[in-house]
From TrEMBL:
<keyword id="KW-0255">Endonuclease</keyword>
<dbReference type="GO" id="GO:0004519">
    <property type="term" value="F:endonuclease activity"/>
</dbReference>
<keyword id="KW-0540">Nuclease</keyword>
<dbReference type="GO" id="GO:0016020">
    <property type="term" value="C:membrane"/>
</dbReference>
<dbReference type="GO" id="GO:0006506">
    <property type="term" value="P:GPI anchor biosynthetic process"/>
</dbReference>
<feature type="domain" description="Endonuclease/exonuclease/phosphatase">
    <location>
        <begin position="9"/>
        <end position="240"/>
    </location>
</feature>
<dbReference type="InterPro" id="IPR051916">
    <property type="entry name" value="GPI-anchor_lipid_remodeler"/>
</dbReference>
<dbReference type="Pfam" id="PF03372">
    <property type="entry name" value="Exo_endo_phos"/>
</dbReference>
<dbReference type="InterPro" id="IPR005135">
    <property type="entry name" value="Endo/exonuclease/phosphatase"/>
</dbReference>
<dbReference type="GO" id="GO:0004527">
    <property type="term" value="F:exonuclease activity"/>
</dbReference>
<keyword id="KW-0378">Hydrolase</keyword>
<protein>
    <submittedName>
        <fullName>Metal-dependent hydrolase, endonuclease/exonuclease/phosphatase family</fullName>
    </submittedName>
</protein>
<dbReference type="InterPro" id="IPR036691">
    <property type="entry name" value="Endo/exonu/phosph_ase_sf"/>
</dbReference>
<keyword id="KW-0269">Exonuclease</keyword>
Amino acid sequence: MLNKLHIATYNIHKGFSSFNQRLIVHEQRDCLRDLNADIVFLQEVVGHHAKHAARFNDWPDSSQHEFLADSVWPQSIYGKNAIYESGHHGNAILSRYPIVSWENEDISAHRFESRGLLHCEIRIPEWQENLHCICVHLGLFKKGRHTQLKALKKRIKKLVPPHAPLVIAGDFNDWREMTGPMLANALGLTEVFEFTHGRAARSFPSALPILRLDRIYVRGFHIENTCVHHGHPWSKTSDHAALSTNVIRR
């Protein structure tokens, strides 16, 4: 019976390197393939951008989540959040296993930041219950994040059975490390790096991580190990480091 999962989260910065110097989505795909995770949570994923497609000869023909998933992750979903004249971007989840249902909930706190909760259920072979996954990218301002965390807690209490396995991952913009008391304690979640290292991981900027912005929360798993993917080549493929963990189903 399959009981171990390799999970990763990565803010891909819309497929561009730090400071938007060059298109890097092809290198991002190579890095993610090398990471070889079972489920990947992605933020700042471009679904469509007419101006970029016209400007860059190697701009992918498909949406970025489909391009990154390619043949490695047969299942992928995309939640459109920010919509503008030339296109849109949002969150995505890539999976080796069947995604049986999904929904993107708008949790925008104000009109200047469009945010969403991308929630799906994944069928893992021989598991009695589906795995619930929620990909998040919270706002830059404390008040907005507080409202968004309340929406996240409400959604979990309403739609995720207490005994069902759950993973929440993404960019929480939580440099003051306030998420734990507001989220983990209320829902019985464990942040994987807090479990292995005592604190959330330093993930930004990727060249020399200082701020602890990204998180992976789990419920119903034993955490085996964790890793921050920074330095070469990751520092050239986004302004965020990727995070990953191996977890074992209890």
